[in-house]
Amino acid sequence: MKPYVTIAISALMSLSLHAADPVMSDDFSGEKLSSNWAAAKGAWTIEDGKLKGAELASDKHAAVLTWKAPHTNSKVSFSFQLAGADQFHLSFNHPKGHLYRVVVTSDDASIRTDKDKKDPASKPETLDRKKGDFGGGKTHTLTCETKGDTVTVSFDNGVTLSGTHPSLTKPKTGFRFIIKGESVLFDDFAIAALK
Predict the structure, then answer these.
(1) What region, left, alpha or beta, does residue 97 occupy, with left being phi > 0 and alpha being psi -120 to 50 degrees?
(2) Which of helix, strand or coil describes residue 107?
(3) Which phi and psi angles does 3 have, rounded to 5°?
(4) Which of 84, 77, 78 is nearest to 137 (CA)?
(5) Along the 195 residues of the chain, how does pLDDT read in single tens digits?
(6) Beta carbons within 10 angstroms of residue 76's beta carbon
(7) Residue 176's closest CA among 83, 90, 54, 102?
């Protein structure tokens, strides 16, 4: 990321997050992932200043990478490009399991709660879904803000999502990228905790 881009992102987030903790970010300019990231599944590399993630058939599981940052309310933004993958998720866990996620495919985006694996009656619930063009090898930006029981998501192509659910108030363990398919490219990752 160019210096002026870093400054612009920091300035934008500072303006919109009046009572936020300091912004943490990663522009993937190093040769390897920083220690803030933890890879559980898949192949995760830095190529040409971008994070590249891909599912591995041998894992028999989607690729998973976590930025470790416990929080309750937060704002996260990053750029992404579907580069062969069917979809990716921006996923949030609570200390005892899965919580909710933003799902992006080539032609839509949604906010969905996760099934509670300890409750057989629990089912995922779609809080919002909108059509949108996210394919074609184009780079897009995503901003996700979670505050209290509400999550709002906006994209640079004008698509916006919003959902409310009581479970969203739980403490979260970090920010997770999940990839199903070939690969996704990410850049300009930035987070801030909201009061």
Answers:
(1) left
(2) coil
(3) -55, -40
(4) 84
(5) 444 344 333 333 333 333 455 689 999 999 899 999 999 999 999 999 999 999 999 999 999 999 999 999 999 999 999 999 989 999 999 998 899 999 999 999 999 999 877 777 778 899 999 999 998 889 999 999 999 999 999 999 999 999 999 999 999 999 999 998 899 999 999 999 887
(6) 23
(7) 90
What CATH number has the domain bearing residue 17? 2.60.120.560
Q: How many domains does the chain have?
A: 1
Regarding pTM above 0.70, the answer is yes
Contacts of 138 (CB under 8 A, 6+ apart): 81
Assess contact for 38 and 154: CB atoms under 8 A.
no
Q: What is the span of the domain harbouring residue 174?
A: 3-194
The residues, any chain, with a CB within 8 Å of residue 11's CB and separated by 6 or more, are none
CA angle 44, 82, 134 (to 5 degrees): 150
